[in-house]
Design goal:
Order of helices and strands: EHHEHEHEHEHEHEEHEEHEEHHEH
Structural class: alpha/beta
Number of domains: 2
Number of strands: 13
CATH topology of the largest domain: Aspartate Aminotransferase, domain 2
Shape: globular
CATH superfamily of the largest domain: Type I PLP-dependent aspartate aminotransferase-like (Major domain)
Strand order of the largest sheet: 2-8-7-6-5-3-4
Strand content: 5-15%
Bound molecules: pyridoxal-5'-phosphate
Helix content: 25-40%
Largest sheet: 7 strands, mixed
Length: 414
Amino acid sequence: MLAYLDHQATTPCDPAVVVAMAPWWTEQFANPASRLHRPGLLAAAAVDQARAQILGHLGLAAGDPNGQPNGDRWGDPISDAAGNPSGDFTGDRAGARLIFTSGATEANNLALKGLAEAELAAGGSRRQFVTLATEHRAVLDPLRYLARHGFQLTELPVGGDGLVDLGQLEAALGPETLVVSVMAANNEIGVLQPLAAIGSLCRQRAIPFHCDGAQAVGHIALNPAELGIDLLSLSGHKLYGPKGIGALAISRPLALAPQLHGGGQQGGLRAGTLPVPLIVGLAAAMELAQADRLEREQRLGTLREQLWQGLEALGGIRRNGAASPRLAHNLNVCVDGVEGGALHRALRRQLAVSGGSACSSGEPSHVLAALGLSRLEAAASIRFGLGRSTSATEIEQAIAAVAEALSQLRAPRG
Ligand SMILES: Cc1ncc(COP(=O)(O)O)c(C=O)c1O
């Protein structure tokens, strides 16, 4: 049987999440913006509850000084339905907010382009974005887009371990810095960036800190307020929730311009009818992730070490990125002496894993390139993403599959 070891690409939607979503597709299908009837009010209450639950899991519970203000329904339209970039909350709406989006890509776009446009609208002069060369394309591409429209982009290199150099980051910051965007956990090599230190550098300078938490939320402890993260992107399908839902958690008041204009939902910051079943599913997935996170981290960390030891024993296999700090369920290795395409073709009958090329484009991974790997080394790399259902048998299967591929592909030593 095929062993699915690609949980950084996506996770299966947990059956309990599917059950939690079920009534919201059929019996309770009303639009949460329909406040004149009971079904609509019930849908709105479900959204409010899900939002409070998710904020709670992020340590931003209602009642907290950084939490959702009492009595304020963030889902309500406010007066900028005309689409002016006035969906900000620099005014009297202090506290945390959670804006539902279609996923982390949209949350990143809202955070980065939203800050840029709000700065322009306010007549501000900050134009510089600071990020890492190893960010996901869902951060790099909006920033490169902004760079083509008058903003400046500083893409900092990382060390051979994939980690930011804090001295370099500090040196890059200045009065013109509009935001620092650094991911929590890398989607290819799983390394964890020093968020608390980055948050503190940003706070000292009153620079907003955006963090793409798509691979981290639900997998590691992540409290944005404690870490100094102002804007946190997350995604349902990376944490055993449904595809098509994510969120931007905003832990302190910041001016953001909406990127989707329309009916004024979500305080005018993100128009569009709220997908109640997906929102309920995201909250249920967060709940489950919170419940088994520590046990999962420990179990998958042990399995990941078994996998690494088994692969290392085959010889000529190197780990890409720091061994630690790293997601417990990620391993990325470079295999010497084989051609990448042939390696992945040999593995795919037995394993669902990812290679060292970015998504479907076939380009060599910019992450592995930033670590100093050559094109050929990146192509001959394998990302293993373990998950909730991963068993010791699958780990043995993975080691055996790589061993078999190597025996076929490596030229016999003479
Ligand atoms: C770090 C990171 N950011 C953003 C994304 C995009 O997330 P979504 O699929 O929810 O748009 C991904 C998904 O691969 C990711 O790994």
